[in-house]
Amino acid sequence: MLRSILNRLFGMLVVMTLVVSLVFLIVHITPGDPAAVMLGPDATGADIAALRDQLGLNAPLWQQFVHYIGSVLQGDLGRSIFLNIPVTEALWQRAEPTFFLTLMALLIATIIALPVGILSAYYRGSLFDQIATGVAMLSASVPSFWLGLLFIQFFAVRLGWFDTSGYGGPDASFAQRMHHLVLPALSLGVVSSALIMRFTRASMLDVLNDDYVRTARAKGLSEFRVVVKHAFKNALIPVVTVIGLTAALLISGAIVTETVFGLPGVGSLTVSAVLRRDYPVIQGTLLVVSGLYVLMNFAVDMLYLWVDPRVRR
């Protein structure tokens, strides 16, 4: 087991090294000049060249890359060109809405998907199963931002239950801020629940007819205990995998959703950084999101040890 953990840690190191390299190269070969954006359309070539030299953008690309790698290894993601603050500080200031949005969306997706997936597998071929499968396929095909616009139109504009955008003022309470996240979390959660539901259903179908399930029924156990304690417990591994991947995907999916709902999170920070060609913020955001994705996969692998004792052998 220790060797397996070390192999996964080494794989994480390799993946993150590739991510850092690719992110740096993609950002720097993308058309656009942050110096020209900062100075505006009336800037002269000499002014742009002077600002590029001040920002270190005139140095050879390999020197910029070596400097960037050295800074990352020291925990320094650079300094925002436009905000004039460290990238880590900018990300930390925007982390709260993104974190709670992702958490709420994942909870909503899980609460919807697990019971529906279990019941759909148990009543395979029934009207409930057909409706649930059809709704899941429809949900998976709907973009979260489009669903968010529908929610805004119905729940915010017509019914007035929620605000159309924002995260509350500086004096807003925690409950008020969470209230602002309900609609965007629903938009992400409903779409993401489709994948979890389909995996839950497929995994349950694989185990419901196994010998140990029939044995549990023969012992006189209640159907609830047979399905939940025996069948679902053994169907958890693929379900845990897809929940972990969904959590990682929700972080990146929050970028568009935050823009639609006007949330001051990491997503809106990334969009503004791309428009401004703020290289340090783009690189730092992509690196952090990729790191969270890799850590989430590692956490899922570790959960296998708890869910399935056979993995420990």
Task: Give a short overview.
With 313 residues, this protein is mostly helical. It has helices at residues 2-29, 34-39, 45-55, 61-73, 87-122, 127-141, 144-158, 174-180, 182-207, 211-218, 223-234, 236-261, 266-276, 279-307. Helix 13 (266-276) packs antiparallel against helix 14.
Topology:
Layout: H1 2-29, H2 34-39, H3 45-55, H4 61-73, H5 87-122, H6 127-141, H7 144-158, H8 174-180, H9 182-207, H10 211-218, H11 223-234, H12 236-261, H13 266-276, H14 279-307
Number of separate strands: 0
Write the element-wise H/E pattern from the N-terminal end onward. HHHHHHHHHHHHHH
**3D shape:** globular
List the uncertain runs: none
**Helicity, as a percent range:** over 70%
Average the pLDDT over all residues and give the rounded result: 79
The helix/strand class is mainly alpha
Strand content: under 5%
Assembly classification? single chain
Radius of gyration: 24 Å
User: So how many helices?
Assistant: 14
**N-to-C span:** 7 Å
**Biggest sheet, open or closed, and with what strands and sense?**
none
